[in-house]
Write a structure and sequence with these properties.
Chains A, B, C: Homotrimer. Three copies of one chain form a homotrimer. Chain A is mostly helical and 434 residues long. The first copy, chain A, has helices at 10-29, 56-60, 80-93, 100-117, 123-147, 156-173, 183-190, 193-212, 219-245, 254-267, 278-305, 315-335, 339-342, 344-351, 362-391, and strands at residues 252-253, 411-412. The first copy, chain A, is built from 15 helices and two strands.
Chain lengths: 434, 434, 434
Amino acid sequence: MIWNTNLRWRLPVTCLLLQVALVVLFGVFVRYDLDADPHWIGRQGDENTTSDMENEFYYRYPTCTPPAPGLPCGVQGLLPQPLAKGAVAVAWATGRPLGLINADFCVGSVCVAFGAVLGKVSPVQLLIMTLFQVTLFSVNEFILLSLLEVKDAGGSMTIHTFGAYFGLTVTWILYRPSLHQSKERQSSVYHSDLFAMIGTLFLWMYWPSFNSAVSKHGDAQHRAAINTYCSLAACVLTSVALSSALHKKGKLDMVHIQNATLAGGVAVGTAAEMMLMPYGSLIVGFICGIVSTLGFVYLTPFLESRLRIQDTCGIHNLHGLPGIIGAIVGAVTASCASAKVYGIKGLANFFGFDGFKTSWDSSMQGKFQAAGLFVSLAIALVGGIIVGVILKLPFWGQPADENCFEDSVYWEMPEEPKSTALHPEDSTLKPAEP
Amino acid sequence: MIWNTNLRWRLPVTCLLLQVALVVLFGVFVRYDLDADPHWIGRQGDENTTSDMENEFYYRYPTCTPPAPGLPCGVQGLLPQPLAKGAVAVAWATGRPLGLINADFCVGSVCVAFGAVLGKVSPVQLLIMTLFQVTLFSVNEFILLSLLEVKDAGGSMTIHTFGAYFGLTVTWILYRPSLHQSKERQSSVYHSDLFAMIGTLFLWMYWPSFNSAVSKHGDAQHRAAINTYCSLAACVLTSVALSSALHKKGKLDMVHIQNATLAGGVAVGTAAEMMLMPYGSLIVGFICGIVSTLGFVYLTPFLESRLRIQDTCGIHNLHGLPGIIGAIVGAVTASCASAKVYGIKGLANFFGFDGFKTSWDSSMQGKFQAAGLFVSLAIALVGGIIVGVILKLPFWGQPADENCFEDSVYWEMPEEPKSTALHPEDSTLKPAEP
Amino acid sequence: MIWNTNLRWRLPVTCLLLQVALVVLFGVFVRYDLDADPHWIGRQGDENTTSDMENEFYYRYPTCTPPAPGLPCGVQGLLPQPLAKGAVAVAWATGRPLGLINADFCVGSVCVAFGAVLGKVSPVQLLIMTLFQVTLFSVNEFILLSLLEVKDAGGSMTIHTFGAYFGLTVTWILYRPSLHQSKERQSSVYHSDLFAMIGTLFLWMYWPSFNSAVSKHGDAQHRAAINTYCSLAACVLTSVALSSALHKKGKLDMVHIQNATLAGGVAVGTAAEMMLMPYGSLIVGFICGIVSTLGFVYLTPFLESRLRIQDTCGIHNLHGLPGIIGAIVGAVTASCASAKVYGIKGLANFFGFDGFKTSWDSSMQGKFQAAGLFVSLAIALVGGIIVGVILKLPFWGQPADENCFEDSVYWEMPEEPKSTALHPEDSTLKPAEP
């Protein structure tokens, strides 16, 4: 018997067949349950018990764990927390009270940007960068949510697109021509497999709760969780299929699986609370899995060699591109909103359209959503250039090229003992057993 | 002073004394609080405020984190997610809307079965196996919950018994006679201590929320969490006692502690939402800790050498046997249900017995519970044989014996750098400090 | 260009400037939102919908994950669980029903004490110590909460102060003069970087839910989460600043960051549910970050060399001192309570003062809070001495000095294979690829 373990065609084809079957099944059969539908008026349909809190969602599903967005940055993910609180303070100062969840979304955006520069900047630079980004995040969020009245529950625009392109612009300004030599060390130090895998699993688990955290109570929160979940599921199949198809022996690449599997959650962010439909979410996840995996294989090397953008953790593929996809999906979904789908009451309640505001229509909402994307990109690019130039000033303790990706430059490291930590029985100081 | 660190008798005796004291104390003194009792009619007992959502449970306890069941399988735990969504779709197609939590329970069942075959099959085989198992899981669940009207909140039968015996049957069909030689590698690769420990702690923490996730609102969900918690606690003491007693120097075995401590959660699955009583849960955990630890020490080697069942992760001890115990405990507890214990309203509400359906009685419910166990076992065995034969077909990319438990066959691995990832300061490329 | 990566003054100054700006901004602008204010009477202010469950908190924030306190102790954190259940049983026996959350708080206290003795005692000693500590914890909690009617939602006194000084007294009695030689092994074995980092991140995330878990429903729970969050955020900045300032090259110490960043959560425990105000929480976190980091640098070595207290994990800095600070902050905050701040109804509701109990006033509450601290310390010291003496008895299997911090004394370890677990492709048994 010949053992042929090259899965280059078998694995992708199996995945794609399953994917197509899934979309067809969902498209033909699956609709939102009553609890996740804008026509929702309480479980029993009884006036006396009408309450969003009676929604099945609150009996069964977890709620958002605020600081989780900082998880993949490790301990450095704690740094932006105090400054994001400052943004909350300033928001109060200007008469627009914000909750702590907004601060967490801000932390998420900062951690995304960190992913582009980690290992190449000093802790002081991280703090300065955070200070500016928190300010810009708040300005951008204010323009989008309050002036343009854009919907962006999962933050495809405010968190991911803004964070990613801000970080990429900063790292473009901080370009180090001779850094590509240490690429090998970069991947081994910063992609510690075990930690990244735990991070991926937890983000995967909590993403539905992120995307539903600031939605309107009741059916909108419920729907946001369902849509996110469907998109993430589709993204897994696509990433596995493409990762295998792009390797000459059909092997899977851990970096693709760890990152591209999450891209579906980003791409469904804006539209998650809308009537995207479960099969729509599957299609979004499918497209995003393709784009994200292709990005890791072809775009990241191109950005580094031609555009001089050194993207440490590949945030362009996990946050940049999926964020833009998410914004576009949101604009399209919003421009398709109708009283037929949401119900008249549901439409008014969801889009803040109260029946008297006759000027509102869905195509206008769609255009404003699109405008939100361009505003986010503009603020990210202009802000990133300014902050990058500031960070180039020579007194922030930036590391030399040889010290990049060396934790020991800024961290006191213990002397490595002769014995390994996990197997202390090999210690040279062998105990005499009684 | 002589330092005698052999705890072979001292540790087990201490544990057992504490265990007995615990059961006696609970048996004599502890009863369910109002919030976890079927007589529950709202906190103030006031008609106007009667609401399950007012139950203390929702103010204090966490709710289920859907995809957590996949945690111990690592990134491979994400694979069944899309296919389980497909089962949801098919369920909708046949007019029985299912929620996403059901899909997660299905994922849990698939991940249990994965535990028997991990390291010996290709990703394509995992996908094919998932496709069939998802179908069989749905059929089995439909027969149990809809036709037999069995109660199985924590899935002792539908998730654990079915998943474990399905997986064991598949690995029995896929038997590899010359694989036992690589046993050492198997344990070192697949039981990476740190990751397994984190997995155990998180599963331990979330198990009460799994077992209560699909129970009826209010007191039933509250009771399910309490019972699961008590059973898990008892299981810890028993596993520690027995693990030490079975080692010639009284040492603890990490594999027993990591696995047997969780078995109590499986064994209390079916009966968790019933009036099992806290001391009853302790006794279930106690029995299950013994059975599971003995299984690891004596049964797994026997299964491998005599029955040709190669159980990679020992799922028979964590899911198979505890699942059967759970089904039996559920049948016995159900057959003891009475209006005295549940209240007339509570009994009708809990078992769906509405006071007019005169044919229902508790002994009949008990018999149907027992029937549910046999149906689950039958579907698992027959299905496992069929799927095993399909997986033996030579074009699924199955690895040769020498490649089993080698991640590098299907995963692109980075070249290992000279320096270790955790201590980059030892790198040969030593930076010149300024 | 000269690359000066010594951040000794730049990093601390940046952090402190940000810290001051944060406190000023919060002090001038930020007040509690309606949902976190004791004047809270339901979202719409409408009598018909008045319900604590309508509080925004329950729609957005996570609830406590019971056994999480045991996380940093690893698998050993599961050991106290069954015994803490025993305390619940005894509490029921004496007519004071306790919930499982109390049992978890008890587990937290035991795990704190474990931190002082880990690696120097046998599993039997841990069980005996747990048995006594659970009893003493219940007695102390009964005196504080039921007799003195002290408020201690986050357990600064009952969990942290009591647990830490109990553990420190036990380790003082168990002093081993020749143990300081193995200090190097201690730090490498017990501070496994990766695991500690994951532990820190999860505790940081869940601390707001711990501190709010047993508060009164509605605004008090909401406020407890906000205050804890602010204190933790301030603590991060201070720890980073001081850790850098105390190193001769301005480097950060991982031990400080992993521990001192959490101290803010301990120090705000008692007062978290009170009207501490967000800026008050920032100040508490600021002070506590300083005290905790200084403790690691100067106090722990002093305790070991002069007072013969060998504090394995530095619990004095993370739980002992912050616990005392928390108790003092709580006493001061309580003695400042007034009808103006809480509202007349809010004051009566929060402090259990019903308007008729004319003898209650805030200064008396403050004095009782202070008394609670001294009771906790007294029970911890006296109890610790007695338990320490009992643990010195020669038949509990205590390890010899040479065996301390050696897991292999009590745990069966697998033979270490030639190949490393993470890179199985280097195995000597190289597979022949087809």
